Amino acid sequence: MKQDNAYGLNWTPSIGRYSFLAEISSILDSGDRSNNLIVAIYLLEQKRFFYNNRAFQRLLGYKLPQFHERGWDFWFANMWSEEALLIKNKVNDFLTVPFDQKLLALRYHIYDATGSDICLKHEMVLHRKIELTFVINYLYNVTEKERIEHCLSRITNCNSTPTDPAKLISPREEEVLKLIADGYSSKQIADRLFISNHTAISHRKHLIEKFQVKNTAQLIKKASKIMEL
């Protein structure tokens, strides 16, 4: 297998190299001009990656020869172990039955050339040229976005009070709750709202669960503190 330094690609001589390159040369040029978009192209019939742009090379650094040698096996081994099996199964399914779906979107973590873990958004798009089926892998480093999301999540959790159960109940449940507070029995509530007795009992049960109390008395007491009954 030969590596072409002009495009950072690996090539098997049996493929019509120059005709294929002529067809996708603009894709390769665009890939190498990009500083942020990480691109790698996988030949489905040949079961090998043949191109990766400079951003991809910077991502893996000294690990790049291992990637060229082992392909997907190396990529999966370089992921977080708790994510690897799920991602591997999704990728293998996509490659096994390629024309059932032409796009696969993934998000996971890998280790870069420095050993740091980074979060990648990964899109795999299926194409066919010169009787060759290939998958363009677009990878986006969303590590900083993930960190911002985590920070916002922590701030929200720290500043928020426990979930307000009043926001979790439906308009019908609110009607039932107010009638319960007024002292109506389940049978009376059913008659008043034109629902079955069973439904009225279910609403009462769901309200007790949502307000996390043990009985109707506790339900009325807690609900009256946070909403108008």
Automatic annotation (TrEMBL):
<keyword id="KW-0804">Transcription</keyword>
<protein>
    <submittedName>
        <fullName>LuxR family transcriptional regulator</fullName>
    </submittedName>
</protein>
<dbReference type="InterPro" id="IPR036388">
    <property type="entry name" value="WH-like_DNA-bd_sf"/>
</dbReference>
<dbReference type="Pfam" id="PF00196">
    <property type="entry name" value="GerE"/>
</dbReference>
<dbReference type="InterPro" id="IPR000792">
    <property type="entry name" value="Tscrpt_reg_LuxR_C"/>
</dbReference>
<keyword id="KW-0805">Transcription regulation</keyword>
<dbReference type="GO" id="GO:0006355">
    <property type="term" value="P:regulation of DNA-templated transcription"/>
</dbReference>
<feature type="domain" description="HTH luxR-type">
    <location>
        <begin position="162"/>
        <end position="227"/>
    </location>
</feature>
<dbReference type="InterPro" id="IPR016032">
    <property type="entry name" value="Sig_transdc_resp-reg_C-effctor"/>
</dbReference>
<keyword id="KW-0238">DNA-binding</keyword>
<dbReference type="GO" id="GO:0003677">
    <property type="term" value="F:DNA binding"/>
</dbReference>
